[in-house]
């Protein structure tokens, strides 16, 4: 699929969440619906392609982070930044729309998120192995992150807290790695 279609759809998502119309995309691209449908079969297909695009780009950046030299804490910080930056445009309404209207993509996203938490655990284990982090129960940490990352994407929580998903993740990262104790 042409990247320009995905990028145009991502811009429309910022305005209309996943309730954008294909006509919105054609208007942004200055193309006819016929031309658009030669590139993409349906809106469902476009949503699938958008999610794939985001995941593939995330994976490319993740590989760069995993190859970094230097303190593991820098990898942790870079990974959290990548995660929050990659999905900062996905606000509470987009997650609600995805969960409600595109169940297959929501489930794929949930699996992707779970895989990324596993990657994060590998990075933390690297820090423990190198003596940069103290030994902690990573099974407990993993479970906390799985439950927390799912809970932080809940529409009502984000709405009531006036947060985006990325803002909530940034706050979680701050709490986990800086802590709550005054020094």
Overview of the structural elements:
With 183 residues, the chain is an all-alpha fold. It folds into 2 domains: 1-40; 52-177, Orthogonal Bundle (Tetracycline Repressor, domain 2). The protein is 77% helix and 0% strand. It is built from 10 helices and no strands. Helix 1 (3-16) crosses helix 4. The N and C termini lie far apart (52 Å). The model has no long low-confidence stretch (mean pLDDT 88).
**Coarse shape:** elongated
Q: Looking at CATH, which topology of the largest domain would you report? A: Tetracycline Repressor, domain 2
Q: What's the number of structural domains?
A: 2
Largest sheet: none
Q: Structural class given helices, strands, pairing?
A: mainly alpha
Helix content percent band = over 70%
Q: How many helical elements?
A: 10
Which value, in Å, is the CA radius of gyration? 18 Å
Secondary-structure element pattern, one letter each: HHHHHHHHHH
Q: Can you tell me the CATH class of the largest domain?
A: Mainly Alpha
Give the integer mean of the pLDDT values: 88
Strand tally is 0
Q: Per DSSP, what share of the residues sits in E-state strands of 2 or more residues?
A: under 5%
Provide the CATH architecture of the largest domain: Orthogonal Bundle
Distance between the termini: 52 Å
Unreliable stretches: none
Characteristics of this structure?
2 domains; mainly alpha; Tetracycline Repressor, domain 2; about 180 residues; 10 helices; single chain
Record the SSE blueprint:
Layout: H1 3-16, H2 22-29, H3 33-39, H4 43-66, H5 72-86, H6 92-101, H7 103-129, H8 138-152, H9 155-161, H10 165-177
